[in-house]
Amino acid sequence: MRKERLIVPILVAIAVIWMAGQLLSSVLFERSLRQALEDLEARGEWRVTRPESSRGWLSSQGRLLLSPLLGRPWRLELTYSARHGILSTDVEGAFLPRLDTALQRAVGEVTAASAPRWKGRYHTLSGRSELQLALAPFIIQQSGRELEVRGARLRLEGVFGDWRLRVRLDQLSLIDGMAQLTLGPASLESRYTYIDDAYHFAQRDHLQIDALALRYPSYEIQLAPLNLHSHMVLDETELRLKGELVMGDMMVPTEAPDTPLLSGRIEMELSRLNADAIRQAISRLRQEAAWGDTSLPMAEGLLSRLEPDLLQILSDSPRLDVSTVALNSPLLGIQLDADGALFFDARKLDQLNVTTLNKPEERARWLERLDGDFVWHDAPTVAALWLGLPLGTRELQFDVIRGDWRVNGRPMPDLWSQ
After folding, report:
1. CB 245 within 8 A of CB 228
2. Per-residue pLDDT tens for 121-171?
C-alpha cells in the first residue's frame, strides 16, 4: 500500500520536472535566438527583423527577414519551426531569397524550383547551436543568362561569442552568351568571435577555390587553385584588416598550354582605422535603417550625415602595409618581389569632403594626403627599360610624395600614353 501511495507523487514530480524542463528549453531557445539576431545586427552589415513569432512550451514558429543594412537590393526570408525537448530543441524551416521591386524590374523574374530546406539543433544545457543546409543542384535562367549550381552544403555551429561557418560548393557555372565562368569545387571556413553587442570582435576567413575557368570563343583562362585568407579585428583603439591572396598557376591553354602566365602571393594589412568612429558610424547606420521603409530604406542625404563619422575613422592616419608581393610569370619572363607601405595624412580633415569624391578636384585633394614607398627587389632589365632608367638598375624604389609617384628619385613616366 505504501508503494502504491508513492506512485502518484512520483508521477506528479516527473510531470512537474518535465514541464519545467520544457519551459526552460523554450525560454533558453528564445533568449539564444534573440541574442544571435542582436549580435548579427550589431556588426553593422545587416538589418534583421522578425515580423512573425509564436512561442510555446512544446513548439515555436516564426519568420525572419534578413537584408543588407545599406539599401535593400535583396531580402532573405527564413521560416522556422522549433520542437522543444528537455535537453535540446530541434529546428527546421525554409529560406527564400527575394529581390526588391526596382531590381526585380531590372533583371526580370528570377525564381528557383522550390524553397531550400534547412535544419538545426539547439542544446539547452550548453547553449550550443548547430545549423545545416544542403542545396540540391538547380538551374536559374533569366534574360539569356544561365546560372547552374551543382550542389552546396552549409554548416553553422557555435555558442554565444564564438561561431564557426563551413560552406562547400561543388561547382558553379555562369553562362552569358558565348562566355562561360566555371568555379569549383570551392570551400569557405570562417570563425567569428566577439563580446556583447560586438563592441570587440575578430573574424578569420579562408576561401579556397580548387579550380576557376573563364572561357570565350577565342581564348580560355584557367586558374588552380586560388586561396584567400583574411583576418579582421576590432579592438578598443582600431580596426585592422589583414589579407593574403595565394594564386596557383594561371594558364592560357590557347596561347601556351604548358607555361603558366602567372602565379604567386600578395599579403597586406590595413590598420589605424579609429575604432570609436567605426562603432559610431555603425550606430548611425542602424538608426538610419530603422527610419527607412521598403521603398526607401535609406533617406536622402545619408552620406552627408555620415561624413563626420567617416572622416573621424581616418583621424589616426591609416596605413597600408604591403609586406609581400611575390609574383612570377614564366610566360613573360618577369618576376616581381616587392614590399612597401602607404600612409594617409589625417591633419585638417575638415578640408576634405566625402560627398564630392566623384569630382576630379576633390579626388586630387584626397590623393595629396598619400605618402609612402615601395621597393621592387631584383627587378628585370625590361622593367628599367619601361621606366627610362639605366639598364643595369636592379632595385626600383617607388616613392609616393603627396600623391605623386617617383621612381629612383625621378618623376614617374606616363606609361599609359606610351
Report:
1. yes
2. 888 778 788 888 887 777 777 677 788 888 888 898 988 888 899 999 999
State how far the Cα of 247 lies from the Cα of 259, in Å rounded to an integer. 15
Average pLDDT, the chain: 82
CA distance 313 to 311: 5
Pseudo-torsion of CA 286, 288, 293, 298, nearest 10°?
-110
Contact in structure between 252 and 261 (CB atoms under 8 Å):
yes
Long-range (24+ apart) CB contacts under 8 A made by 386-394 are 386/415, 387/412, 387/413, 388/413
Extract the runs of DSSP E, i.e. beta strands, from 368-416.
370-377, 396-401, 404-407, 410-411
* Gap between the Cα atoms of 44 and 160, Å rounded: 18
For cell 539599401, the residue is 71
Distance CA(382)–CA(385), nearest Å, equals: 5
Count Cα atoms within 13 angstroms, Cβ side, for 125: 2
- Specify burial of residue 138 (Cβ count, 10 A radius: 0-12, 13-18, 19+): middle
Record the pTM. 0.82
DSSP conformation letters of 124-176: TTT--EEEEEEEPPEEEEETTEEEEE--EEEEEEEETTEEEEEEEE--EEEEE
State the Cα–Cα distance between residues 95 and 79, nearest whole angstrom.
6
pLDDT at residue number 1:
46
Amino acid at 374: F
Q: Which helix (H) or strand (E) holds 10?
A: helix 2-42
DSSP classification of residue 198? G
Higher-pLDDT residue of 387, 3: 387
Percent of the chain with pLDDT over 90: 38
pLDDT tens readout for residues 248-299: 999 999 888 889 999 999 999 999 999 999 999 888 877 776 665 544 444 5
DSSP code at position 252: B
- Could you give the CA distance from residue 397 to residue 400 in angstroms, rounded to a whole number? 10
Residues 327 and 338: their CA atoms lie apart, in Å, by 9
Torsion of CA 5, 6, 11, 14, to 10 degrees: 160
